[in-house]
Amino acid sequence: MAKRTSSLYTQPFHRRETLRFECTGCGACCTGTEESHVFLEPGEAEAIRHHLGLSTAWFRRRYLARTGEEETVLAWGAEPGRCVFLGADGRCRIYPVRPLQCRTYPFWPEVVATRKAWEQEARRCEGIGRGAPVPLARIEAELERQR
């Protein structure tokens, strides 16, 4: 018997299902494991530095690190797994200039690819599954920004 294939089953999860997301401001997306990284796109470090009003040398020493691939990442603060810019009140101190990785959360390719990944991320983020349906065009635009 021939295997039946349908574009419904070959499309990414986010195209087959209606996804809901509404940020609650809980800050859970700004915490993780020691292995977590916030990768910076070109120009993002400078925008953050300028927003904070710091010298280039001080900002680089205090807030930047390199991964094994030589990509620039934000260094963690005193608490491993917690973004150094996550304030005590749970709010982002660099929100207007936060990195692309932060702006596009939770619409990362690996999170919206499968139902399992989406549901796993929902255990960490209370905003997943809340609010109005997110238009597919917005999800696609967020994914495109990350390419």
From TrEMBL:
Origin: domain of life: Bacteria
InterPro entries, A to Z: Puta_zinc/iron-chelating_dom
**Which organism encodes this protein?**
Thioalbus denitrificans
The upper taxonomy is: Bacteria, Pseudomonadati, Pseudomonadota, Gammaproteobacteria, Chromatiales
Protein name (Swiss-Prot/TrEMBL)? Uncharacterized protein
